[in-house]
Amino acid sequence: MLSHKSESVKVLIRCRPFNQKEIINHSIKCIDIQQLDNKNHQCIIKLISPKRYRRRISRLFRFDSFYDENHRTEHIFQDFVQSLVCDVTLNGYSGTVFAYGQTGSGKSWTMTGCLCHSENGLISNAIEHVFHLVHHHQSNNEQEKEFTIKCAYLEIYNEELHDLLLPRTSLKSSSRLELRENPRSSGVHITNLTWKNIYTIEECLKLKRLGDLARTMGSTQMNRDSSRSHTMFSLSIQYQHNSQTKIFRQGKLNFVDLAGSERQIKTGASGQQLLESAKINLSLSALNKVISSLVQTNTTHIPYRDSKLTRLLQDSIGGTTKTIMIACISPSEDNYDETLCTLRYASRTKNIRNTPIINENSSYILLQQYAEEIERLRAIINSSNIHMHSLSRSIPLNEVKLDDQHSIKTIRDHQISSENSPIIKCQRTISCQTMSIMTDTVISSTQTIYDIKDHDYKQLVIVFDENQHSYQFLAWHSCEISSEFNRQLKILVKENKNENSWLGTLTTTIENKSLIWKNHLYHRQHQLHLSEHTDSIITHFKIQETIDTVSSLSTFSLVLYTSSNYIILDNLLLSSTDKNQPINNHFITLKESNGIIYYLSDMLYSLSTNELLVFMLDQYHHYHLHHIILNENCLFENNEQIEIEHCSCCLNNENKSMNNKLISCSHHLSFINMSCEIEQENKIHKTNTHFINLDNHSIYLD
Ligand SMILES: Nc1ncnc2c1ncn2[C@@H]1O[C@H](COP(=O)(O)OP(=O)(O)OP(=O)(O)O)[C@@H](O)[C@H]1O
Question: What are the residue boundaries of the Kinesin motor domain, all occurrences included (predicted)?
Answer without folding.
Answer: 8-352
